[in-house]
Amino acid sequence: MFIFNPPVIAHRGLSVAAPENTLAAFRQAKTxxxxxxxxxxxxxxxxxxxxxxxxxxxxxxxxxxxxxxFSYEExxxxxxxxxxxxHFSHERIPTLEQVLELANELTLSINIEIKPFVGQEEETxxxxxxxxxxxxxxxxxxxSSFSLDVLRYVREYSKEILMGYLMDGWNxxxxxxxxxxxxISVDIDHEILTREKAxxxxxxxxxxxxxxxxxxxxxxxxxxxxxxAVFSDNPKKIIQK
Length: 241
Ligand code: G3P
Ligand code: MG
Hints:
Elements: E1 8-11, H1 23-31, E2 36-43, E3 49-51, H2 72-75, H3 96-106, E4 109-114, H4 121-134, E5 141-145, H5 148-157, E6 163-167, H6 174-181, E7 185-189, H7 195-203, E8 207-211, H8 216-224, E9 229-232, H9 235-239
Parallel strand pairs: 1-2, 1-9, 2-4, 4-5, 5-6, 6-7, 7-8, 8-9
Antiparallel strand pairs: 2-3
Helix pairs in contact: 1-3, 4-5
The structure holds SN-glycerol-3-phosphate (G3P) and magnesium ion.
């Protein structure tokens, strides 16, 4: 269904070389020869879908407070790059719309991780699906979430959208969840993955993705267990021979 070649997804863009979840990080992923990017989305106060990992602004911008308390008009003024390196001081928090446009321009495949603020699950899903429907995305894409509420809303509002079930703790009932919600992939913290668990998932014909893997030897081991691709901050390290 998907081709992961090389079998690495740039986690929040090429986040080893550029500030995570910025247009610079996505551009650098492409330049490094990576075909898939992952990024995180949530809602700004005005309902705009923005690309950022934390619910708060402090770690990756020069702002303070919760993302959902600010309109995009306010968020777009923040510096989302200097925390990483002053060279990136012009980077801004992107909107989902901007990243979808960039992905089309660069021929990037995308994994949109929906990370709603608590209580905003349904509204976040509706806004994300609206954008996906209206954007004419040219490359393969899927959405994923740790939140079962999010996955359920996605399936309620769209029968077609491809979806991954994110697991940061082992759920022995993972297959029931994936069957009920018609997920195509299991995206799991590599630290809780074992050969047996990988085989169980692959035996059931799901795509298996593991995060966040920055060590080449570990990636090799995961691939030998049947992992289809790894999320990495440093994809070049994973694909080097
Ligand atoms: O989707 C894989 C990975 O991004 C999940 O964890 O916290 O880095 O978003 P996190
Ligand atoms: Mg993520």
